[in-house]
Amino acid sequence: MYLEMRNINKSFGSFRASEDVNFSVEKGELAALLGPSGSGKTTILRMIAGLERADSGDILIDGKRVNDIPASMRGIGFVFQNYALFRYMTVYDNIAFGLTVKKAPADAVKNRVHELLRLTELEGLEKRFPNELSGGQRQRVAFARALAPEPGLLLLDEPFAALDAKVRKDLRQWLRDMIHRVGITSIFVTHDQDEAVEVADSIIVTNKGRVEQVGRAYKIYKEPETAFVSQFIGEPVIVEDFGKLNGYEKGDFDRAIIRPEFVEAFKSDNAHFKDIITYSQKGVIKDIVFKGSALELRLNVNGVEVVTHRSLERRPVEVGEEMNVIIYRLFAVKDNTTELMQNSYLLKDDPTGEKLEKYLYSDGGYFAG
Amino acid sequence: MGYKKKKSTRFLMITVSTLFVGLMLFLPLVMVIINSLKKGFEFYLQAVSTKTVISALKVTLLATVITVIVNTVFGIFASILLTRFSFKGKQLLQTLIDIPFSVSPVIAGLAFIMMFGRMGWAAPFVDAVNNAFGWDIKIVFAVPGVVLATIFVTFPFVSREVIPVLNAAGSDEEDAAALMGAGMFTIFRRITFPHMKWALLYGMVLCTARALGEFGAVNALSKTRGETFTLPLEIDALYLSGSADSITAAFAVSSILVLFTVVLLVIRCVLENRSKKAQEEQKRR
Ligand SMILES: Nc1ncnc2c1ncn2[C@@H]1O[C@H](COP(=O)(O)OP(=O)(O)OP(=O)(O)O)[C@@H](O)[C@H]1O
Ligand SMILES: [Mg+2]
After folding, report:
1. Which of B170, B181, B281 sits opposite A101 (nearest CB)?
2. Which of A280, A297, A271 shows the shortest CA–CA distance to A358?
3. Least C-beta-crowded within 10 Å: which of A92, A257, B33, B222?
4. How far is the CA of A192 from the centre of ligand 1 (A)?
5. Whose CA is nearest to atom 28 of ligand 1?
6. Looking at the domain assignment, is residue B84 inside a domain?
7. Residue A71: phi, psi to the nearest 5?
8. What is the per-residue DSSP string for B239-267?
9. Residue B225, SS3?
């Protein structure tokens, strides 16, 4: 483990910004701190960097407890939320700063800065000032500046937040490649799950100062451990009365989370679904939103509103049309626990999921008319 | 865009403002110059080179220079303290610094008399220091008192200008520098100071202008013409002595202050532009 956070607590006055935070990051790994605004992501990052003191708990970097080591001695590179480039210094001086304050010899500084300019594709811009750069260029300067002193750990606070959507997408991939190429252990903060899923090797989900779940993106997506995670990841639709849906009993659960991909809606004459049509339920299309690559359908099923995506390759549908709806599965939630619930009708008929798979992925299945 | 941009309205407003500024501000200053030369240039030169005037000029410059230095150093410290640290009583300190804005300078002068005068509570302390070092420093009715009063009156000018700029700049750059191992002095020299530079100079100019012209507080603490009088006091004394000659002399001495003012005004104009530009640049980021 390169970085370990053990039982970290932090309060600002009476406000608890971090509560019993535990997680670790392996050497060379790129981890994402993912959580809603105000969930304490920046606070965690600042404590690791030493810009903020933890009230209790241990922060270990490379096996050594660093709580009492000053920020400047922890060997950490930090990319700030808005980059915090030195606006009265040129790009060159920005990148060189960490080396010159450590009194590195002029030759070494020059070589290292040029190496980084090359790495971050900023050659030719070294005489510019930060306000003469584009957002993406600034981000790369911030990255180069943080890397210049060869830190053991790189922390990035919302590195893409200040960029527009297109640049953001390009830079995500760039940053991911760059970090893996340099091989530096990194943690970046984001409140955008697409970003976390796309860039990070592992994800740490935070909420209200607590760590909700740590793991690979796939696992967090498929097996949320807490009610919060099931509601935060994916495109969740919250359904209170899910007992009204065929194949489910509400029991003493509070509510259910149904993602669009858990919902199948097909026309009653669709041959591919004829085996399971008896398990379906009527649903009326309330609204259709064109999402670019697919349609988003909003259906009223027995008084419950569910959402599904529909491939553009399938037959057209219209508002008011009656569809047959099957909910494959859902996350049932009670307090802060969550449980995956399969459609009991399907389960009885198809316990191994063999038929379901056929409906979904056979030539005609999910993507057929 | 609340106001209708009618041509006639605009014209009226411009005319009224210009007339007002001209009549109330510009004309009086011109009158000072005209009056000062009423008895010829020779008289003018003589009037501004009497012993008392030279002494007053010296006291004024001394008080101003010391004041600007002290208040600049203090202003930098206070601004950094109030924008970069959080501590109990911060709000209170902020309010205290602004006291000179709300207290009449005369009261400030009297307060110093109460403090350092013969019966004042700080007098024994001053005596003790004098005894210990074999000095004979008097504060009230002496030049140190004049300096103290001037410092008091112009206390908030620098921090007033610098604090908003530091707040706008934020502390991320300083954090970034600290994280890379920069010491306090390096951070100040390479990051904080460039941020505040123009605002600081601007504050210093305001401070200078105010220090040169201070009357009320100094008047309470300075009673000896030719020794502890500053230029404003000297002008007052000349004017009050009432003869036609001395009134013209008063104008002649005033013209020195007017000259300072014009120079400061120009510097101020330039600085204001620079600091505005610097701030806009920050906003653009
Ligand atoms: N210096 C501080 N003093 C008081 N409260 C603070 C301080 N810093 C952070 N907080 C509070 O702690 C909580 C967590 O803040 P933090 O900046 O860590 O959130 P975040 O997850 O990074 O949010 P965002 O995504 O909006 O950046 C917030 O409610 C914030 O108001
Ligand atoms: Mg944050």
Report:
1. B181
2. A271
3. B33
4. 17
5. A38
6. yes
7. -50, -45
8. HHT--HHHHHHHHHHHHHHHHHHHHHHHH
9. coil
What Cα–Cα distance (Å) separates residue B277 from each residue in A77, B263, B284? 32, 22, 11
Count of structural domains within chain B = 1
What ranges do the domains of chain A cover?
3-232, 237-368
Residues linked to residue A307 through DSSP beta bridges, in sequence order: A298
CA separation, residue B241 to residues A83, A336, B43, B51, B234 (Å): 66, 88, 17, 17, 11
Residue nearest to ligand 1 atom 4, measured at CA? A12
Interface of A with B (CB under 8 A): 49-51, 71-73, 76, 78, 80-82, 84-89, 97-98, 101-102, 130-131, 145, 149
**CA A208 – ligand 2 centroid, Å:** 13
Q: How many CB atoms lie within 10 A of CB A269?
A: 11
Count CB atoms within 10 A of the CB of residue A75: 15
Asked if residues A57 and A66 have their Cβ atoms less than 8 Å apart, the reply is: no
CATH at B252: 1.10.3720.10
Tell me which CATH code domain A3-232 carries.
3.40.50.300
pLDDT of A366: 44
Looking at the predicted structure, is the pLDDT value of residue A361 above 60? no
Specify the amino acid at residue A308: T
Contact (CB, 8 A) for B253 and B51: no
* pLDDT tens readout for residues B78-98: 999 999 998 899 999 989 998
Question: Residue A161 Cα, ligand 1 centroid: separation in angstroms?
Answer: 16
The partner residue sitting opposite B281, judged by closest CB among A71, A84, A131, is A131
With an 8 Å Cβ cutoff, are A84 and B175 in contact?
Answer: yes
Residue with CA at minimum distance from ligand 1 atom 29: A38
A369 pLDDT above the threshold of 50? no
C-alpha A8/C-alpha A212 separation (Å) is 14
pLDDT in tens, A247-287: 898 889 999 999 998 898 989 888 777 777 888 899 999 99
Is the complex ipTM higher than 0.90?
A: no
Q: pTM value?
A: 0.78
**pLDDT of residue B70 exceeding 60:** yes
Structure confidence at residue A288 (pLDDT): 94
Range of the domain at B212: 39-284
Contact (CB, 8 A) for A146 and A77: yes
CATH architecture observed for domain A237-368: Beta Barrel (2.40)
Output phi, psi for A173, to 5 deg.
Answer: -65, -40
As for ligand 1, residues whose beta carbon falls within 6 Å of it are A 12, 15, 17, 35, 37-43, 191
Mean pLDDT of B107-118: 87
Q: Which of B172, B186, B190 sits opposite A84 (nearest CB)?
A: B172
